[in-house]
Amino acid sequence: MKDDRKVIARNRKARHEYEILDTMEVGLVLKGSEIKSIRDGKISLTGAYASLDDNGELWVHQMHIAEYAQARDNHEPYRDRKLLAHRRQLKKISRMIREKGYTLIPLDIHISSGRAKLELGLCRGKKQYDKRRDIAQRDSERKIRTEMKRALRGND
Q: Nearest Cα to 56, choosing from 88, 78, 79?
């Protein structure tokens, strides 16, 4: 199932701003002009988040899908869109959000088996020092890799 997956857009800031504890794939309820725009890559996940309403339904907010130029009846770019998930997933999500105060953040949108899917991450916000630690760790790993390459080139 993962091999026919074509990623359309990623939320790159999410991995920097949040600690991702769990991920899940959910479906989207879309209009015809929205799927056309998604296939064209005219979508932004920056600032988007998901939430559960009082009826136990999952919704994504602040996700921008640009209007499709050739459509007669276009959609509103920032409208709230319903997400489709299994009942088991919804129960798990609602328990984690209510008890522990986690947030649902869209990580990427992709086409899988001809259908648009959203990968949601169950996240907890990072503190400033966590972000700094991650940056320092990435820098040190990069330096180690370059030194190892330099050492290997010297032995040839």
A: 88
